[in-house]
Specification:
This protein is mainly beta. The chain is about 10% helix and about 50% strand. Strand 7 and strand 8 form a beta hairpin.
């Protein structure tokens, strides 16, 4: 993994996009379940794909969907997420709710696209438990925003090593443009994430409408999203613009670390099928692009009605 990272960094000629993203249910006045997430990501400059030259490391050049695309790029990101039970002030264990868990990981991704289709593959490696640093991060953030301090991190899951691979594709199904620079699109997104934290198959539809902005293939920076979310953010030559977007997604959970590795005293019945919805707004100022997203979904647990609901703020800087 480290050797591959070094290879990717060595092949970079110039930076394209740097992003900082934060998930937090504090944006909605909540403080439970998926309570916080932080991510720093880098997307390389766009490489043209020609018959004589592949713009990616040779290891990836022949993967389905990559070799036939016009443009290519790679990404690297560092992410940390924190999961807690509904009541973080409770000192005794609630065996009918999610346990405390922190997950920090490194993602390496490769992406190829043309005007209609984006294809991506990636590797994910990280740790669950105290080594993730999630307890320290959450307590620091809660102190900064004046929120209640969590009382149960001494019972968090872990430590354990997490690893896996993912693949996804986004296809533009419809596109409409007007003479005064308004554009609307409909994308179909699908993919698989095979890892020992949250193995799942996902699919859904994403609608965008905006002015003087290039439609992005997957403008979803929340949760365990990939570097492919950044692609398209600065493709439009216009230096300003705005957009609205929304999506509906379905997910089949094949494996969840939170339920499968919780102590035997927990009574957690996991839902295999989960639905999610998101709405968001984006605004661009030259080389800066800002996103605000609200996301909600059905509960991961059969005995809980409330799902994961939170907000996300993301800033992208092209340099």
């Amino acid at each position: 993994m480290l050797g591959l990272l070094g290879c990717l960094l060595f092949t970079a000629t110039q930076a394209a996009t740097l992003s900082f993203s934060i998930d937090n249910d504090f944006f909605l006045g909540l403080d439970k379940h998926y309570t916080n997430g932080l991510k720093l990501a880098y997307l390389s400059d766009t490489r043209p794909n020609t018959a004589s030259q592949c713009g990616l490391p040779a290891l990836f050049c022949h993967l389905p969907g990559l070799v036939s695309s016009q443009r290519q790029a790679w990404s690297v990101s560092i992410q940390q997420i924190m999961v807690t039970p509904s009541d973080i002030t409770r000192t005794e264990v609630d065996h009918d709710d999610l346990p405390y868990a922190g997950f920090s990981h490194l993602d390496l991704g490769v992406h190829a696209w043309n005007d209609r289709v984006l294809t991506g593959y990636g590797l994910r490696l990280g740790v669950v438990g105290s080594l993730s640093g999630a307890e320290m991060s959450q307590k620091f953030i809660h102190k900064m925003i004046g929120s209640k301090q969590p009382e149960g991190w001494d019972r968090q899951l872990g430590n354990d090593v997490i690893g896996g691979i993912y693949a996804f594709q986004s296809r533009q199904m419809l596109r409409h443009e007007t003479a005064n620079h308004y554009r609307s699109t409909l994308h179909w997104v699908y993919g698989v994430d095979a890892n020992n934290f949250n193995a799942a198959i996902r699919t859904g539809a994403l609608v965008q409408w905006g002015h003087r902005l290039h439609p992005m293939f997957v403008p979803d920076f929340t949760g365990l999203s990939t570097g492919g979310a950044m692609i398209g953010a600065f493709d439009n030559p216009s230096r300003t613009g705005w957009s609205l977007f929304g999506g509906l997604f379905g997910e089949y959970n094949a494996y969840s670390y939170l339920t499968q590795r919780a102590p035997s005293a927990y009574q957690l019945n996991e839902r295999r099928w989960v639905a999610n919805a998101m709405i968001g707004v984006a605004r661009r100022w030259d080389r800066l692009h800002a996103f605000f997203t609200l996301r909600t979904g059905t509960s991961l647990l059969e005995n809980r009605n409330a799902g994961l609901t939170f907000g996300n703020v993301t800033l992208l800087w092209q340099f």
